């Protein structure tokens, strides 16, 4: 989106996300009540085994330290640090707290090893997605797909809104088909710089709705991991979960599109000042 991380995440994406979450929460409440009445479902309390842990309660705050670090080390309140540096500092902070709590270096390094392995697994998946996305985007460019998108959007007179809607629909359908929230976004976001510069559109105007559509799309995919997991825990069909999430997701996506149209300038000149 060619924007600083703070501006993109907190000043642009966050307000749009909050508006969508509020709208989805309201839609979720009324949609579930409607389906419950329609299917004559009565609520009952289920016995859930308590999760026992020896970790202090304040450890729940540690996952939020990278976000706090990004806000503090942005060059205004403190020295400007890269996100990778902030993550390393947060990991060291967690290791120090764990050592002070038990003075057991073996447990600390065992925990760090688990974290390293988790990072490696996640990194391997991201690298494969990025490589595949690059190949996919280059293929689309070679066959003229990007130029066709620009031509179609321009023919309607308002290139920005048409392009945004086309990319949102493509990303949403890909997320529903694959069940992944990352792969569709990585696949299509590679096209954004070329599309934006060719048609004079603000890259953030295109990428923010795509990001949200990718995340929302997997929640209405019967093959996504989260839907299958929820269906398994609730002992119902994944299609039943999709039916329950469909209307709130559609409402959220509409709010994202409307909020983007209102809050994010469509023309790149509005961002660059040209």
Automatic annotation (TrEMBL):
- Which parts pass through the membrane? 12-31, 51-73, 80-100, 120-137, 149-176, 216-234, 246-264
Q: Name one GO cellular component term.
A: plasma membrane
Q: How does it sit in the membrane?
A: Multi-pass membrane protein
Keyword Transport listed: yes
Q: Which residues form the signal peptide?
A: none
- Name of this chain's protein: Anaerobic C4-dicarboxylate transporter DcuC
Organism name:
Salmonella derby
Output the Pfam families linked to this UniProt entry.
DcuC
Q: Does the keyword Membrane apply?
A: yes
| Example of a GO MF term | C4-dicarboxylate transmembrane transporter activity
Q: Which UniProt keywords are given for this protein, alphabetically ordered?
A: Cell membrane, Membrane, Transmembrane, Transmembrane helix, Transport
| Protein location | Cell membrane
Similarity-based family:
Belongs to the DcuC/DcuD transporter (TC 2.A.61) family.
């Amino acid at each position: 989106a060619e924007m600083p991380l703070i501006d993109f995440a907190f000043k642009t994406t966050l307000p749009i996300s909050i508006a969508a979450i509020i709208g989805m929460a309201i839609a979720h409440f009324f949609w579930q009540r409607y389906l419950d009445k329609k299917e004559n479902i009565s609520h009952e309390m289920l016995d859930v085994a308590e999760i026992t842990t020896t970790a202090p309660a304040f450890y729940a705050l540690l996952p939020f330290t990278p976000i706090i670090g990004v806000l503090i080390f942005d060059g205004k309140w403190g020295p400007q640090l890269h996100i990778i540096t902030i993550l390393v500092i947060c990991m060291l902070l967690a290791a120090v707290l764990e050592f002070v709590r038990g003075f057991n270096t073996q447990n600390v390094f065992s925990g760090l090893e688990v974290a390293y392995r988790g990072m490696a697994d996640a990194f391997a998946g991201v690298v494969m997605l990025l490589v595949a996305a690059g190949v996919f985007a280059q293929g689309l460019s070679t066959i003229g797909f990007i130029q066709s998108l620009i031509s179609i959007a321009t023919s309607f007179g308002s290139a920005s809104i048409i392009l945004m809607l086309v990319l949102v629909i493509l990303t949403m359908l890909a997320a529903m088909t694959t069940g992944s929230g990352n792969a569709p976004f990585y696949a299509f976001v590679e096209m954004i710089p070329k599309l934006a510069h060719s048609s004079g559109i603000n890259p953030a105007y295109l990428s923010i709705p795509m990001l949200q559509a990718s995340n929302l799309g997997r929640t209405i995919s019967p093959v996504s991991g989260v839907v299958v997991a929820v269906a398994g825990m609730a002992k119902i069909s994944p299609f039943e979960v999709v039916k329950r999430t469909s209307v709130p997701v559609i409402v959220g996506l509409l709010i994202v599109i409307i909020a983007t149209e209102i809050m994010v300038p469509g023309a790149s000149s509005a961002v660059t000042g040209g």
